[in-house]
Protein 1
Amino acid sequence: MWSWVAHRITGVLVFFFLFAHVLDTALLRVSPNSYDRVVDIYKNPFVNLLELGLVGAVLYHGLNGLRIMLIDFWSAGAKYQKQMLAVIVVIWVAVMVPGAYFMLEHAAKQLFGSS
Amino acid sequence: MTDLQIEAPRSPRTRPARGRSNFEMHSWIFMRISGIVLIVLVLGHLLIVNILDGGVQRINFGFVAGRYASPFWRIWDLLMLWLAELHGTNGLRTIINDYAERPQTRFWLKMLLYASAVLVVALGTLVIFTFDPTLNS
């Protein structure tokens, strides 16, 4: 049940981000300068952290989507739905830990000044 | 025991009731097919823009110009845009149907949703097709 709630919440979140993201990318047609200025927002350390949250939401939604498809189409899918949830949580952590490192490396150096 | 008969959940429906379309079944299939494709397109996109070669710090107009010199990335982005927006719109349609109870509220929320979907798909498509690397600031 909670995996379903999380699937909805992450889906809505990603949908609203997509709306904003298409609008900011549309500045490519306005001028290189205005596009560069809006992309600079993404490079801010705090926004970078939000981006990590977005990646986490997308990754969960995708992994749980695969799990839903296995429940629907694999004959033993419903039987193993709990184990599959455990598997996707493990995969999520295994991807997010190095993902967080690489995404926040630059921001951390910028904030704490070691290089 | 009574002789109550319950169809197995996976038994196929013979045919849609007369005059009714099978829209909900098709949208259900679309969510799964687009979902699989989006896993590749979106996770690939996130990896490229956030992690590879310096991640988001290297992104600017010139970076996009370099990528959009190749039709491969334009087609990638176009497919990702259309599938993601339709997948998300259909997901939100389901959520509105679940939680908005007054017919008026349902109707207007869905109109707002569809209007935003048309705007996002049209604007995004326009940008992908008309991107001009020589555009002056």
Protein 2
Amino acid sequence: MATSGAGKSARNSKRVEAWLISVINPVIDSLRREADLLADGNLSWRYFSKKCEYIRPVRSYIEGNFRPNFEDFLTENPQFKKKFEEHDRALSKIEGAASEFAAALLHDPLFKLRVEEALKDYAVEATYARYDSEPRPPGLASMNPGMPETIAEFLINNVGSLPSYYVPYSFWERYREDFVKRFGPRENAKAGVLPRAVKKLQGISARLAGDVTRHRSNLCSKYDMAPVPIMPQGPVEELITRR
Amino acid sequence: MKTNSPFAPRNRDLLIIDTGPIRELILFHAVYDLGFQSLRPQLRPYFDRRAYKQLSRFLGLFRERTTSASVVAELYRWIQGLPDPSGHQQLWERIYQEFRNMGLNEEVVRLIDMPISIVAEHGPVDASLLELARRHLSRNPAILTVDSWLARECGRAGVASGFQLIEVCHRNSS
């Protein structure tokens, strides 16, 4: 049977305390953030890295200094190893599907044409302000990656309105609807792989969050501990606050 | 005046950004989006979600944003000083993303072009930002900083309007 134990003492185990603070709670918090992002369709996928920035393999949710606690947790609770791997595989599929979607889009002549048209249209606006009192919107020539790649990223991440200080803010306000309607992965039947991969991770992530939360409750009952242990200035707390 | 136009007026032309506000932006994302809880104590107490929104609005008032190459070096020193090297790559990815998103330009100011007295007393970063403001005087620049001396010095030297981050976060919220 998979254990959830942490040695012989069934009360106030320091080892379990360390798991709670440095492994279990960060994983639960991260999976909650992940659920919110996925619900919004925001994969935080980046063209330059071809990875999701805010949705990551479970191990990455643990800060580096606490990775030994993570390894220790998995040794004592091996049932989570497979669950974490399943999560990470689903994430990897999303990243692959997003990269494929972006590559296909960037080769799509219709997309290229539409980007070209929109950029020409925008360049006129950016060169001549409509009113004297209106400064020109910023040019997009220095964008790196370029605008086609940026638009692909926005579509994959289901980006709505951008913060107003982002260089492509005005462009995206003006052309977002059109690009989403014509090329968005959720509107495009050919892009079915990506929405399916997202749905799959959503399910896995929700189940995992439930499993880890239940496991936390069990540990708390078994070791008579609070989910967020409140300690006097001990070495673990000091580590967390000082790092 | 069409206030809802995506091409609505941007009030000023150029904002010069010091290390402090960039660091707060990075810290904000690191804590709230990447879950780096150990960095939370480094985030200024007033820099919460609301302050982030105010800062976003403020940054959006400028058509262009620039900084000095020395600021990048200062960000490097900050990250190198953090004890968990496993998070460095992600912090740099966030910095790259912020620089991309805001189209932040970087300009080199030679040491010999900076006043020795300011370099000696306040360091080359502050001196380089003031020099940038001098360079772009015709563009009515502003400097955003967390440093009260630099914010005051902008006005005193007559090269830019100086804004402190805390003031921006509070002023816009009213």
Protein 3
Amino acid sequence: MSKPSYVYVSYIRSTPEKVWQAITDREISKQYWGRSNRSDWKVGSSWEHQRVDGSNITDIVGQVVETRPPHHLVISWATPSDANDPGRVSRVSFDIEPQSAGIVRLTVTHSELEPGSQMERGITWGWPLVLASLKSFLETGEGLPIPKIKEAQQSK
Amino acid sequence: MDAVFKALADPSRRELLDRLHAENGQTLNELCVRLAMTRQAVSKHLAVLEAANLVSTVRRGREKLHYLNPVPIHEIATRWIGKYERSRLDALAELKKGLEEQ
Amino acid sequence: MTGPNFVYVSYIRTTPEKLWQALTQSAFTRQYWFGHAVESDWKPGSAIRFFAAGKCDVQGEVLASDPYRRLAYSWRVDFDEALRNEEPSRVSFDLEPVGPEVKLTVIHDQFGAGSKVYPGISNGWPMVLASLKSLLETGEPLAATSEAALCAARQRSLDLARATAA
């Protein structure tokens, strides 16, 4: 059975450079994602998706697969315990394309997911939230309160 | 519902609603222009309308645009005409759930 | 055999009341929906017309209307001969307050296999919904969805329809 691929498209009033920075800068990513993305972003380097509550727990790890700043970034994606199991490593690509009039189209493609897995369920719920937060952050200076929203959703 | 009736009871406020019905999305300045009311009075009336959910505002820069919300008035009408069928809405809720679980 | 479904989930810092109004009132839709005004009384069974620059682009019928929570209507494209002949599809909006935000789930479905309308709407919705979010959060819609962009948007839908294998 083929692995599903999820595509999320957002249009943001910003520049490719700012969108790239928001995704890859360890301090800026904290502000809207509720997690810090840490890497030197060179091909082959590792990257980490780390909590910012002082615990330093890393929820997701991977490697930088392709990079063409500020337009294209591909990373592998897995929980630390799954990182060595190729069947459980998925792939995320970010495509950041300028459109007309100060607007950027951001396309996030999450592929190679294990069908029916907890990861698949988690990301299909998580990406719309993170991308909505990123858009609000770049356009209004304030992201969405992701921990609060997660709590509100999970209490249902 | 009480807040809606109270808000509608005042003729100046009904006039403001008429103005927004004719042209939706006006600023305070635009609404004040042809009315025989002080700016302060218009502002107070708009606040009552907003509290009753008859008017919504969206901020644009330093301005606020006022939009008429016809729903509460429709709801008053519906109460006397009949409730909407729940079953259609339930079917939609099921659809949404089904698609999310795919 | 059924066709594809389009699903889009977003979170908008607004109230369910404002979001509902933005979805159902011309004063809003003109700003973020390529200049389209919308005519309807939004009662179940009532007709809906989306029109811009003197042309009716989409017609439909209200299928469900639960103010501030759920709205659904049928969707028949009217601006092109070939597209007009497709069976109507269905759009539904689900508004859910989540913390200080509103979670908006848009589902556009009931397309037949090989639908020529589908490519256009799956391209158009992300732009319209992003512009709606910008409008409610910043007061300004995205310039790319203004009335001036309408012709290009119609053309894009037609190009995408033609690119679909017959």
Protein 4
Amino acid sequence: MQLTGDRLSQIQDLLERGMLGFVPEIILSLAVIALLLCDLGRRRIRPAVPGWIAGLALGLAALWIVVNFPAGTSPLFGWLEGSVHKPLLVNDPFAAFFKLFVLAASLVVLPMCMQSPLLNKRSTSEFYALLVAASLGMLIMASSANLLMIYLGIEFASMASYLAVGYFKQDRRSSEAGLKYVIYGSVASGIMIFGLSLVYGLTGSLALDDLASTVTASGMNATALAVASILVFAGFAYKMAAFPMHFWCPDVYEGAPLPFTAYLSVASKAAGFAVCIRFLMAFGPEFRIRFTDYAGLPDGAGFGWKEIIAAASALSMSAGNLAALKQENIRRMLAYSSIAHAGYLLMGVAVLKPDDAGSEQFGALLFYFIVYFLMNLGAFFVVHLVTVRTGEETIESYKGLGRRAPFLAVALTTCLVSLLGIPPTGGFIGKLHLLSEVVEGGLIWLAVVAGINTAISAYFYFKLIKAIHLDKAKDESFPAVAISNRLLVAALVAPLLILGIFFAPVSEWTKGFGL
Amino acid sequence: MGFQYANVLFGLLFGVAFVILNVAVLSRILAPRIKDPAKETTYECGEPAVGSAWVRFDMRFYTVALVFLIFEVEVAFLFPWAAVFHHFSKIGGLFAFLEVFVFVAILGVGLVYCWAKGDLEWVKSTSSGEAAVVPPAPRGELRAP
């Protein structure tokens, strides 16, 4: 290969411009290194220091994204084929939305980590390093435009998550959770990389843009491409905790350090959705692969992502909600509820459309993401505060919380009502938007399934609400909750109520982040 | 077209029948059965077997293997860089030069981390300060202390 000076300058220019768009990730990388080095000094640093370092880095990265919010699509890194730039990463409003989402989730989780007595027993800077590294992996997931980067981002986020889930080495549940997560994760990523290698073999390129152009080309072995992309989808479903890759979810959510459970249920899921949506968009409008290689099939016959995603969605919400009915542990209950929510969110993915035509659908989906962020993190924050104080996490131990800690009880109730989707909370508006888009997209049966599922889920959400407000507690005492924690909980719960009534500006705003 | 697949089907059926006939049927009828205690023991390269196979391997083997793996991968990444670097050196190439240093520095942090945590020492001191003394393993036996 001969590189002329002109071409070299182009490549170097590409790299240098890439670095500029990569600043948030660089900040996080530096923070990971700093946090690892924190642990090595002779003198033990104060336990709060690593938390502040992580917070500073995450905050700076988020600030950088807000200030340099991408107006259009700018490709980063990659290589040149002729004069065509094949990027590894892209910086666009969609990526920026999910990057901010992940960073905000980790910022909310940080105070939980800093208060967790179990986490502060031993040197904790490793744990923060893992948290920041997982966020870094998710940022890469959100912006990857290349099959390799998709895999790399998912693996990066997963590796850090495995370690953080099994962080309490002495705790059997945590070790079990870590091991299960690793085994499920490696199976899922094995399936996924097999799919990715098939996609590469079929299209001859790693760039998602090329996938888009080969899907529509004739003479393509459509059956093989359909199988390959379903295998790839398995990897995404694992990150989203959607059916049929959801089995790890309850055990991991139960055993992991509670702050990290909260983090996984929001950030990891969102990153999985981001990378999945970007992959699906490569299949063009309606995401169909037309079977052109068989004679005698009716015109337009083919493999449709829409049906596959709709089926995964219906099964996820049914599996999640039905299994949640019998849970006695609040973490397991919330885990199954998060599987069900993966189903609701997938419902929005099934009707997505690329370009400007899809701004309504993207708006509905991303609005639900914002609401999900608030209600799930709000619920986990309250669960964290209660668990730290009572040391228990059964639904039994929530009896009489309404009398013992009225503020927390009201906050948790609001989050649960929103997870269920009852007005006047954001959860209702989010679900309403989603369902109306689904009906408009022609999947009426899916909307009916979602409605039935909402009714089923009422049972277990209300079981907890009943325990909180109607049942009597054995022990009426409850340690006080500091004002700073109350403010944090209020900052998560109040927007939920506001979004339930005054939602128009936000739902308009989210329409601008489509692909 | 369908006929060609029939070939495959017959080949498959024949293969399955062949294996079942030989392994399950003929060997039972034809094979001699002479019992001998030596036949029942574990085969260990012709040597008499020593100890049980169910020994615990020391964690340190894995740690060292992991550390080795990391730096091996580092080298694997440095080779492609070295192969194209002379192109970049024609136009200054400061960027490509610095980039690889950043890469090596990050891996260096990993080495420092292992070192400071004591994972490079074979006899690792425990948290209470006293060294965990490891008795030398008997010869011919891979056994964890």
